[in-house]
Amino acid sequence: MTVILLCLLVILTLLSRFGIVFKAITTTLIILAYAFWYISDMFTGNGVTDAVFYHLLNSAQGTSLDDIVDKVAVAAVFIVIMLATVAAALYIKFKKRHFTGSRWANVAWAGILIATACMPFSRNIYLAIKETFLTPGNGYAVSSQYHKLNGELPKKYNFVFIYAESLEHTFRALDGKNYLPGLNAIANHYLDFTNIQQPLNMGFGWTMGGIVNTQCGIPLVMSQGNAGSNVSHFLSGANCIATWLTQQGYQTEFIRGSQKEFAGGDKFLSQHGWQAQHDKAWFEAHSLATPEQISGWGVHDDAMLDHAWNEYQRLSQAGKPFLLSFLTVDTHPPAGTYIPECDNHIEKSSEYPMLTAVACSDYMLSRFINKITQSEGFDNTIVVLVSDHLMMANGATSLLAKDEAARRNNFIVIKKDLLGIKNSTQGTLLDVWPTVLDLAGLPGKTLGFGKSLLDNTPGQFITDYVKGHARDYLAYASELWNYPSVRDPMVQKENSIQIGSQRYKLPLYSFVNENGRFKSLWFDSFAKTMARQIKPEDTFFYANLCQNMSIDRPGICAYVVSPSEVKQLHITTAGIVDQKRVKQKSSLYQSGLLGISVGEDVYDYSGATLPEVFLPLPPGINFFAAKPHPTVMYSYASCALPRLPEEEMNAFLQQKNEAMIFSSNDSIACGDRTTINQLARLLKVDALRKLQPRQQIVGLYTPEKTDYVIGAPNQHLDAFVDMTKPQLITLCRAFFECP
Predict the structure, then answer these.
(1) Could you say which of 167, 307, 571, 689 has the lowest number of CB atoms within 10 Å?
(2) Closest alpha carbon to 323 in 457, 444, 153, 207
């Protein structure tokens, strides 16, 4: 149904020349939103979730190219459709061609637009953004429920902790068949937890999320724009299992077949107690896998499990207690990987390759666990197997989705004195390590927001989640990134800023609480975000390289801005070398302020906002009215089209007889300087003639004069417009730093 509506939207866009550019841009953005949802759904099977946002904000290094080829192909199709729509609209407009002069097409277009906005994909995107970024919680309300590990294990068991990629409990009875017979037999003989749920959009549901969920007992939250790649310390305030075990004298080692850098995993593990990490590069460097045993996601499970077994034997013989953990890869969606080691040991599925990979993984893992249970060291070893998350979109999704609410994660504990116990207590991956430590004899039985499930009562987190009251836990988890304070030492480190012990990329901004502590971390879209979110009572911090703010000074220009004053800080490699207070109210607290953020990341970064209005800005040059409300009235893709229609644009500017806001986006200079020179004449801005590719400009045009600001090449540019006057407000003006 959605595809039909989108097709009608494109057709109706082109049926009438009236407002055709606006319709084409709007239609293209709707198609873009659907493309984002569709490709996200190809990954997750649940549309847009917080897992999508996490991976967008983090390094994609280590992603299997084989697994994204089909997504890239789909993206290419959508791009072609969008470009064709815009090109056709421009052709019809400038060649004065049309199919009909009737206005009924515009009325029908508006109706289809409304219908499309009400479709499930639109609601999914809205709710995912709202739940992930826009719904605040009160971390203090649940702070008493967050527990750090303390005490000492009465007996130092060795731990083997297995993350079975996507190998959820549901595969034990899928469409009337058990695809995990080996693990099911082990679970029946030891301790099996059958009710481990996965909350949606709550910091669960992807590999890095599952690792943090289990090891730290918290949801994995990337608070407002906080990308792991932009900070030097990953969840520095979290209290996690490997650090605590290291303090108890344990050796800790994590093995994975994929690249350790994927999704920030190496940073988290190295900073939270893991003394050794063996990943794809380590296997290659030590010749532990043949070329046939390495594919897109990394080292196949046969080579990885052989190495894990050797490490188990080595660590057992060393005599020190150890935590050995590994993460499998062969059941990674969309189709999994089958390895010859499973020949003649499993039943293959010709219809669903993923189910063959699942059965193969079951054989490999159960064989590995049985080797441990038959080893001399098993008396002093606890083996744990969990699925890191429910399986995302794959060839067998149709079977898994038949009863979505019944899907559960695996959690099996193998310990010598456990005899066929089934535990159906409602829980999540947060409860895994508290339960294991309870079995090991630790009195505390809690970690983070998790608790032991052995008392057969659910924890407060899952109880509150079922009631729809789990936002406070996410707020508290976001605070564990240990946000800095404006009172901490600040120093320039190349093109970044170090505040206290944490290093951040620039630009950096954050709202600040009454004690000077940052409340959130953002790294882009300053004007677009602040125009929508700032309140009269807010205090905020902003830092950027001075040269990127049109301030002729080396180093970093930083500001602590409150409703009554602006504190200016000049920061170099020597620290804060100068500071002063300006006892004036910044113009950023004015009502009716339009924030404009432009740069090369057209759809992720750019746009213009008022508190209740958002204007997407296409690539090229854009003009929009300052009064009575901002509306994009003219856009020209100067890099895609050969020559600016100068007479038409001049007539457009003159007939308005009012202030017009203009901005670049992505780039308006692409080799041929003809368009740039035309714009320089029309706008009376000679500096435009020297504009470089991907150098941004924002300005305010009137027939009498033009006010503008030009950013640094290849840098984003932020500016504001006071819509009540109107007046251009550059960052240096907002912070009282202009010469």
Answers:
(1) 689
(2) 153
Please say whether the beta carbons of 532 and 610 come within 8 A. yes
Which residues pair with residue 639 across a beta bridge?
Answer: none
Q: In whole angstroms, how far apart are CA 257 and each of 59, 254, 636?
A: 17, 10, 48
The encoded tokens of residue 108 equal 């029908």
**Of 98, 106, 82, 121, the residue nearest 23 (C-alpha):** 106
* Residue with the two structure tokens 């045009």: 701
Residue type, 137: G
Q: What is the pLDDT of residues 532-542, one digit of tens each?
A: 889 999 999 99
Q: How far apart are CA 296 and CA 316, in angstroms?
A: 32
Closest-CA residue to 288 (of 315, 309, 269, 270):
309
Helix (H, G, I), strand (E, B) or coil at 433: helix
Using CA atoms, how far apart are residues 408 and 387, in angstroms rounded to an integer? 9
364: its two tokens: 């490999």
For residue 474, give the 3-state DSSP assignment: helix
Which residues are CB-contacts of 68 (< 8 A; sequence separation ≥ 6)? Answer: none
Q: Which helix (H) or strand (E) holds 614?
A: strand 613-615
| Other Cβ atoms closer than 10 A to 733 | 18
pTM: 0.70
Q: What is the pLDDT of residues 540-585, one digit of tens each?
A: 999 999 998 888 899 999 999 999 999 999 999 999 999 999 999 9
Q: 3-state class of 186 per DSSP?
A: helix
Query: What distances in angstroms separate CA 636 from CA 98, 620, 643, 675, one per listed residue?
Result: 20, 6, 10, 10
Helix residue ranges per DSSP H, 218-341: 241-247, 265-271, 280-285, 301-318
Nearest to 731 by CA among 531, 591, 535: 531
Between CA 724 and CA 401 the distance in angstroms is 53
Residue count of the chain, please give it.
Answer: 739
